[in-house]
Hints:
four-stranded mixed beta sheet; 2 domains; mainly alpha; single chain
Amino acid sequence: MKGLEEAKALYVSRGAEMIHALFPEAEGRIAVGLAGHGSECFGFDDELSRDHDFEPGFCLWVTDEDDLAFGTRLSHAYRALLSSPAAERSALGEKKLGVLRISDFYRRYTGCAGAPESPEHWLALPSYALAEATNGEVWRDDLGEFSAVRETLLHGMPEDVRRKKIAARAVSMAQAGQYNYMRCLRHGEAGAAQLALTEFVRSACSMVFLLNRAHEPYYKWVFRAMERLESLAELKDALEFLLLGENDSALKQGVVEDICTQVIAELRRQGLTDSSSDYLEAHAFEVQERIESQTLRSMHIMEG
Length: 304
């Protein structure tokens, strides 16, 4: 059983009854689910995933005021319910289950108690942080405060911010893959060429998520998450080939151009560019010119 399924089963079979019995006056104020750090929150976990930073359980998200009112009692009840030994933690392991303040949960990912309030703040946030803040499932949230922030993080990124990020990825793909890869090889710099190809893949993966209006997760889960996307998910195999395939530079350059062609087609489909160029850098500047915010539009093309 996957960790997310196990967590829900624990809540349904035992957690809901505990909350109802011991906190009848507050059960409508407690948001319940599983989200945040860990492969189980994405549904990517397996048996190997349980060797560190894993323990069965779920999250109980409460407001700051409710934490003061009954958070300690709820924490004691949660620990008594599960009575499981602490999991072996990595150096970066942090508390991720049990009673959590809504503000603390989101502060870990956004740097504030909720969603970003400015385009500049949105632009500065790493995609993997937004992916962790919005993964998993919420099984109950009568109060709606936790889910309101979650919804904003999922779907509320300003379009200007998305376009700025897309422009930056487009110019990076052009420079690393369409220009520098073969150029480095001609200079006899095989290591630099491989770095260029890797940079192209990283930027292309990010671009695919941005074009799907989705948050790209931590790098080790990128290809698995890409399979779930609606558009351009078929690029996964080509991108993996660039990293793992035979050392045929001409073949790989052709794959790079094919990927860029499909990305350009999607940029056009979304009305982000009208350029007829097959070089992504030209499209990067077109996308940036369509940003309404003068502040974002005036930033360096590679910022974002």
